[in-house]
Amino acid sequence: xxCVQEAAQQDGLVVVGAGQAGGRTVEALRLNGYSGxxxxxxxxxxxxxxxxxxxxxxxxxxxxxxVTWVHDPGFLKNWSVNFESGISxxxxxxxxxxxxxxxxxxxxxxxxxxxxxxxxxRLTIPGGDDRRxxxxxxxxxxxxxxxxxxxGLRLLVIGxxxxxxxxxxxxxxxxxxxxVVEFADAPIARVAPRALGENLCKEHRAHGVQFRFATQITSxxxxxxxxxxxxxxxxxxxxxxVVIGIGxxxxxxxxDEAGLTVANGIVTDSFGxxxxxxxxxxxxxxxxxxxxxGRHISLESWQNAQNGAxxxxxxxxxxxxxxxYAEVPWFWSDQYDRNLQIFGLFNPKAEAIVRTRADGSCLYxxxxxxxxxxxxxxxxxxDLRPAKDLILAQAPVSAAALTDPSISLSALVRELxxxxxx
Length: 422
Ligand code: FAD
What we know:
Elements: H1 4-11, E1 13-16, H2 20-31, E2 38-42, E3 49-50, H3 57-60, E4 68-69, H4 75-78, E5 82-85, E6 89-93, E7 98-101, E8 106-108, E9 111-114, E10 118-120, E11 133-135, H5 139-148, E12 154-158, H6 162-173, E13 177-181, H7 194-206, E14 210-212, E15 217-223, E16 226-231, E17 236-239, E18 241-244, E19 248-250, H8 253-257, E20 266-267, E21 279-281, E22 286-290, E23 295-298, H9 302-317, E24 330-335, E25 338-344, E26 353-356, E27 362-368, E28 371-378, H10 381-384, H11 387-393, H12 399-403, H13 409-421
Parallel strand pairs: 1-2, 1-9, 2-5, 9-21, 11-18, 12-13, 12-18, 13-14, 20-22
Antiparallel strand pairs: 3-4, 6-7, 7-8, 10-19, 15-16, 16-17, 22-23, 24-25, 25-28, 26-27, 27-28
The structure holds flavin-adenine dinucleotide.
Flavin-adenine dinucleotide is lined by residues 16-22, 41-44, 51-52, 54-55, 88-89, 115-118, 136-137, 163, 251, 254, 283-284, 300-303, 305, 331-333.
């Protein structure tokens, strides 16, 4: 049996999904010397782009687009990447190493990389398909939403996750009246401590956002030009526009139908290989084995789409060279002029250790077995950055040191390095 790198050199590589992870994969393949045939298939009509600005800068200013393209213009052509846009992959024939496309063609592959990302979870309630109910994932979604935001518009945001909160922040600045409805009893409760979410809420309330927690929308009806949202506690909320941000589902149907191991995404090893050694998965659609945490994790973040894809592409570009993708997860969000940073993995069932800083703001930590596994805070990017090294080192850190604002995290890292060199 030839290894995947040899098969890739002989029969080419096909990357499915032309988002950030797919775009970075083809780039890193070429920059790391892969010279075989290379095809990138993307169902969107666009060149690969990054998504973070879609819920931030893009929504603030209707007059100019702030799209972050993955490549410089001409990159794909100059580096002989056959880019097929507006086409989706519909079926994988693993035995024949062929990929079927929506336009009826099929391509053979030596290696296949799935970078199909996620799509918004739909709200399946009566009236939920009204054209005033929007989702936000693609550049086109962002263009439509920003075109509709205007002073006085009553915007109902469903879901107090990152996308919902970022949309709320942008819409308030565009003069909209914003109400956020959330099923849970706190915002971003799945990924960060309750107190941190509540602090963010305070900021939103100060800007005029209304919140309703522990509430669900059960239906929408149209009346007098508005959309009336019925809530689970018997209220009616009138809205001119609704943005639904209730999570994302993996685009892994073709992997599932092909018999690959799938569990809320395509399950891979630490090198990005799926249960088929000739098929890899990167970015949001992958559930990769992270050697730092010793378990499979699924991440929806810029860092994972960027660095995970580069790591997997490097492995595929050269025969014999294999290094795992092993990084401490990092995520950020911008709301108003506040920047939130999250490092590591949050455990919703565990308590957070809180450090109160001189300005009254807080940093939040979690440890497992005395080792740091999670750190987060708002407006503290520089102070928090060393948390990444502390988590990676898996060295014991005391709760006393984490709570003490006079001990900087960088001092803890220095202390750790000094111990390691002794
Ligand atoms: P995607 O970007 O989803 O790209 C997948 C591509 O594959 C899509 O173009 C899709 O159409 C295509 N595709 C799917 N199926 C097929 C098929 N069968 N055939 C062909 N093509 C297919 N992360 C942060 O760390 N910080 C942030 O502030 C932040 N903000 C965000 C804001 C928004 C609005 C969104 C949506 C995400 C944000 N993220 C943020 C997350 C980050 O952008 C994602 O993790 C990243 O885009 C994932 O990249 P990806 O390439 O894996 O998937």
